[in-house]
Amino acid sequence: MKNMKNTSGGKKFDRKPHEDKTFHSEKKKVSIVKKGDEEIRLNRYIANAGICSRREADKLIADGEIQVNGEVVTELGAKVTKNDQVKYRGQTLSVEKKVYLLLNKPRGFVTTLDDPHAEHTVMELVENACPERIYPVGRLDKETSGLLLFTNDGELTTKLTHPSYEKKKIYHVFLNEDFTEDHLEQIRQGIELEDGFIKADSISYVDPADKKQVGIEIHSGRNRIVRRIFAHFNYKVARLDRVFFAGLTKKNLPRGKWRFLSPREISFLKMN
After folding, report:
1. Cα 214 from chain centre
2. HSE on the CB side for 119, CA within 13 Å?
3. Alpha carbon distances (Å) from 35 to 14, 38, 81, 94, 131
């Protein structure tokens, strides 16, 4: 079967008969793309499928990890349509409608897609939200409550979780004893933990009359970083609640409930 003429600068692929209305005769086979089929770059298709960002998709393509209609593709400028069969490690990718959902996570739920050892996972709380398969953006540990975003947008997930983007997160910390002014200032200036230097973008008492409650703003995504900051001074975190994430707040979202983001919120996440 001949490759069609490429009028848009990217590679074209032979398509399977059941996918793009291929007509047969004894003399020749002619593959035609249904009118109106939109071509998109292969890296964007992969990112839209929720696998990774476009930049990471380019590496998968270059490494020969991607197949289109049964053939390995390594050309970074390659283009496909929704009728092409794109596979990554044997799994057929699907370009679904993008979904963006915000959960106010309760304590006692593990942030994982599937864990046979976990009594409850966050996926239980959103399992009937939409037909698309969505994933948590980053993680909150089992005993941390608060904002957790879910999506199938791989490119946005990378943007929100990569340290270089420095997305703002604010936590409400409840301690077992009063937090001293001296320790407050040390965290503000920065401290050395076992995995490197860390400092808060901002830190203060939530209520000056109750020094067991502290608000801390931080953009680091290091594992259990907030708990470890306070453990450095031998405080125990009685409760930890994420109240702000990348511009999103818990306003009108009860604990254990979720809601879809508004178009304005989605645009804000993608622009900033």
Report:
1. 28
2. 5
3. 16, 9, 11, 21, 28
**264 and 149 co-located in one domain:** yes
pLDDT recorded at residue 4: 40
Q: For position 57, which CATH number holds? A: 3.10.290.10
Query: Residue 246: what residue type?
Result: A
DSSP structure string for 216-252: EEE----TTHHHHHHHTTT--EEEEEEEEETTEE-TT
Q: For residue 203, what is the enclosing H or E element?
A: strand 202-207
- Is 153 labeled as catalytic in the residue annotation? no
Residues in the chain: 272
Instruction: Single out the catalytic residue among 141, 153, 195, 241.
Output: 141
**Among 85-89, 93-97, 173-177, the range of highest mean pLDDT:** 173-177
Tell whether the model's pLDDT for residue 27 goes beyond 70. Answer: no
Q: Longest Cα pair distance anywhere in the chain, in angstroms? A: 88
Q: Report the distance separating Cα 242 and Cα 144, nearest Å.
A: 8
Q: Rounded mean pLDDT of 140-144?
A: 94
| Terminal-to-terminal C-alpha distance of the chain | 46
Last residue of a domain, one of 67, 92, 117: 92
Give CA–CA dist 21/135, Å, rounded.
35
Unique residue bearing structure tokens 């009063």: 178
